[in-house]
Hints:
Blueprint: H1 12-52, H2 57-75, H3 87-101, E1 134-138, E2 147-151, H4 153-160, E3 169-172, E4 175-178, H5 185-194, H6 203-206, H7 213-223
Antiparallel strand pairs: 1-2, 3-4
Helix pairs in contact: 1-2, 2-3, 3-5, 5-7
Amino acid sequence: MFTHDNDPGFDDADFAADRDLARETARSRAALLRLFDELDAELATVQARVAEYGSPAAAVARTADAARVRDSLRAAPDPTDLFLDASPIGWFTAQLAQAYACLPAGPHGRFGPDASGAYPAPCLFDPHHGPATTTALWQPSPTILPRPVQCCADDAARLARGEAPRARRFATLEGHRAIWQCDDRIYAFWLMGHFTLAGWDRLSAVLAQTALASSLHYVLVHQW
Length: 224
């Protein structure tokens, strides 16, 4: 049986490179499995909200579609394929956005269209906070200029007090990061799916110079 052990052209540097690649692949798989757990929790949040509003049939159907996307991600032979094509993440969150839009107005606001047929944008920091009903000044980091951002009233109040918004955070290879601190296309698709009804036209300007900006631009131009 041929192995690298009896390959005269395979030296210690090659062994080290193979070992490093295996470690990186294992870390990537672990991060994606944590992401799938977060998608499970996200779906459960929307399903609970749908039940709270009396389980309208259209909203139930959209959460069922999201569950099917989630199940297909879980069933994939190699989860790291998601780094090559992360569009299923966007389809998943787009179904959640549509489920919200099927709900009547309530304590969490209304995601459905207004009289003109336009859909409100969700809170940038976490779409599950509710519609973005307030404009606030936000500085993504001390080295980036502040910019106006549409968000929920609670996050706007926190920003006005000089506090950080309650941002959605993800388990990445670099640790837990707020959505705008994530630099992979997976998170660009995640955010764009949530904005699928409201539109993506403001996202590039609001997230300019953040870690997510280049991935967001790539997806907008080449992949969606």
